[in-house]
Amino acid sequence: MKFTEQLWQEISPIYSAILTHGFVNELTLGSLPSSTFQYYIQQDALYLTDFSRALNQLAARATTPNDMLSFTQFAQNAILVERALHESYFTLYDIQPETAKMPACFAYINYLLATTSLQSVAVGAAAVLPCFWIYREVGNYIHQRASQQNPYRSWIDTYASEAFDQSVSQMLALTDQYAENASAAEREKMRDAFRVSSRLEWYFWNDAYTQNRWLV
Ligand SMILES: Cc1ncc(C[n+]2csc(CCO)c2C)c(N)n1
């Protein structure tokens, strides 16, 4: 079994919790309150900018030109996605930009920046992988079920694209290659990083759903 297949098996309860989460359910049905979607998009714009920084960190630290190129392209793409949010959804759904990261976004981004800066590139790659992989799976899941009249259709179509599918496959191959060259202890850290980020993906949806804010 591929290393990444093993990773996916290990997060099976987390992935199920994401698919059955109220945010995903209501987004699919089109009944998600616009204020909830607004919170999500505002936080995601903040997330994407720093996610790009985390990928650039991996690009700077990768040892082969091929890997550097992959991480650089992913990093560039995250900024393009962020820009697309501004050019489409912010206008389409009349959303105001936000500057404060709420708890899940704050935790997730700081975890990714610390891991891609201070851990090995292999562990850093495992930490950013859920962002790609979970979005492809959740994106396809929603895409298959949502109606054409869904008010969030424009967002839903983004993650079901072929271009996105290709970058996820590239990221998976890259992670498997790092795992092959890693020691058992290193692979254990990769598994842990993959699980932590997957959990934080759930928290990201949950913060939007509950409109979570700093209590103090
Ligand atoms: C919280 C959160 N997690 C994952 C994504 C998905 N995503 C954003 S950028 C990118 C690819 C960059 O090359 C992917 C897969 C998101 N938007 N927000």
TrEMBL record:
Keywords of the record: Hydrolase, Thiamine biosynthesis
InterPro entries: Haem_Oase-like_multi-hlx, Thiaminase-2/PQQC, Thiaminase_II, Thiamine_Salvage_TenA
Gene3D superfamilies assigned: Heme oxygenase-like (1.20.910.10)
MF terms (GO), sorted A to Z: thiaminase activity
One GO CC term, this protein: cytosol
Keyword Hydrolase among record annotations: yes
Swiss-Prot/TrEMBL catalytic activity: thiamine + H2O = 5-(2-hydroxyethyl)-4-methylthiazole + 4-amino-5-hydroxymethyl-2-methylpyrimidine + H(+); 4-amino-5-aminomethyl-2-methylpyrimidine + H2O = 4-amino-5-hydroxymethyl-2-methylpyrimidine + NH4(+)
Domain Thiaminase-2/PQQC: 8-210
Entry's Gene Ontology BP terms: thiamine biosynthetic process; thiamine diphosphate biosynthetic process
Domain of life: Bacteria
Primary role: Catalyzes an amino-pyrimidine hydrolysis reaction at the C5' of the pyrimidine moiety of thiamine compounds, a reaction that is part of a thiamine salvage pathway.
Family: Belongs to the TenA family.
Protein name per Swiss-Prot or TrEMBL: Aminopyrimidine aminohydrolase
